[in-house]
Amino acid sequence: MSVVSKSPKYLLMLAMLSGASAGSLSAQTQEGATAPAPAPADVSATAYLSPAKMAEGPEIKGMISARSGDKMQVTASDGSKSVITINDATRITASKGFLGLGRHRLAATSLLNGLPVTVKTLQSGEGLLASRINLENKDLKTASMIHNGTNQRFDEQTAATEALRGRMGEIDQYNVKSTTNVNFDTGKAVLSPQAKNDLCATASTAEGMSNALLLVVGYTDSVGDEEYNQELSEKRAGRVVNYLQQACGWKPYRMLTPTGMSEADPVASNDTVEGKAQNRRVAVNILVSKGLDGL
User: Fold this and answer.
1) Which domain range does residue 251 map to?
2) pLDDT tens digits, residue range 22-80?
3) How many domains does the chain have?
């Protein structure tokens, strides 16, 4: 049987069709939005762009030391730093090592600061473009514990919360440009019309800032036990992330891993009805990495 080679033009067309199909499927899952805009393709299900259009770049090994917009900074063991662009065609994979899992695909939100990575690159007109990013599952363990805090008991959850705070405060990585709070009814994770308007306005503001990222953090009031509130805070954060990506067009690779913080960091007293209403919130923070500020 003869093998028909595919031209670069044919491969590029396949990549474009794959992105369009993924966007249509994502838009169908949007909850409660009217006339949704086309959703961005999930980078964990996007085909390679043909390398025939770009020269192969160096393979870079190191640790993620900064994230900003569609750029990632990787610091090697010798201290050298490389700024690499991530786009919808970048493949992000994790190999066997954590909980016995085989190789699988990941979303760009898995690219946390501090994670060791191996990056295959292409030479673009503006520098290096990541064609593939690989990391070990064992290196995701700490990040997984923080993000999936509902699997931890009280003491473990407290430790995970402190680890998250430490990560975000590490070496003053980010300038916080603004914070938008959207509020929820008791025990609910349903976005109000006002919340939806505020989220898209925030995304629009961030889009106008160079190298901006979004960090989404969910909270609850003091009603309910620790485990229930942790689940609820994560559910609220997830609902906001979905809306930002599906309805507001915010790219997944320009978002840090969302998390739930349960009852932590109240903005008002939980002793009053009004105070509890303010604490039932998701905070959307616009961040710019100090390491990449001005790029």
Assistant:
1) 143-289
2) 333 233 333 333 444 444 433 333 333 445 578 899 999 988 888 888 889 998 888 88
3) 1
